[in-house]
Amino acid sequence: MSKSILIEHVADEVGLTKADAKRAVEASLDLIAQNLVDGGRFAIAGFGTFSVTERSARMGRNPQTGEAMQIGPSKSVKFKPSSGLKGRL
C-alpha cells in the first residue's frame, strides 16, 4: 500500500476531501516521526508500538573485496505489533 492509497481510504471512510485527508495523514505521520526523533516511542492501541533501537559499532566485511571494515553505530526504527494485530494475521 502506498501513502496515496492510504489518503484515498481515509478520505472515503471519514468523508473528507483528499486534501484534508492528506493533511491529516501527514500530520499523524509527522507526529510519530518527531516522537521517535526525540527518543520516545509511539504506541497505537490495538495496532502496535514504534520504538528506536540503537546498534553499536561492529566489524563487518566489504562484500566486494572481503576486507574487514568498521561499521559505525546507528539507530533504527523497530515495530512491535500488538497481540490484536498478530491475531488478525
Q: What's the rounded overall pLDDT mean?
A: 93
Major sheet: arrangement of strands: 1-2-5
Give start-end ranges of low-pLDDT stretches: none
Question: What is the CATH topology assignment?
Answer: HU Protein, Chain A
Note the main sheet: 3 strands, antiparallel
Q: How many beta-strand runs?
A: 5
CATH architecture: Irregular
End-to-end separation in angstroms reads 16 Å
CATH class placement = Few Secondary Structures
Shape: elongated
Order of helices and strands: HHEEEEEH
Helix content: 40-55%
User: What is the CATH homologous superfamily assignment?
Assistant: IHF-like DNA-binding proteins
Q: Structural class, judged by helices and strands?
A: alpha+beta
Count of alpha/pi helices: 3
* Domain tally: 1
The radius of gyration over CA amounts to 19 Å
> How much of the polypeptide forms β-strand, as a percent range?
25-35%
Précis, in short:
By secondary structure, the protein is of the alpha+beta class. It is built from three helices and five strands.
Task: Give an account of the 3D structure.
It is a single chain. The protein is an alpha+beta fold. 43% of the residues lie in helices and 30% in strands. The chain has three helices and five strands; from the N terminus they run ααβββββα. The strands form two sheets. Strands 1-2-5 form a three-stranded antiparallel β-sheet. Strand 3 and strand 4 form a beta hairpin. The mean pLDDT is 93.
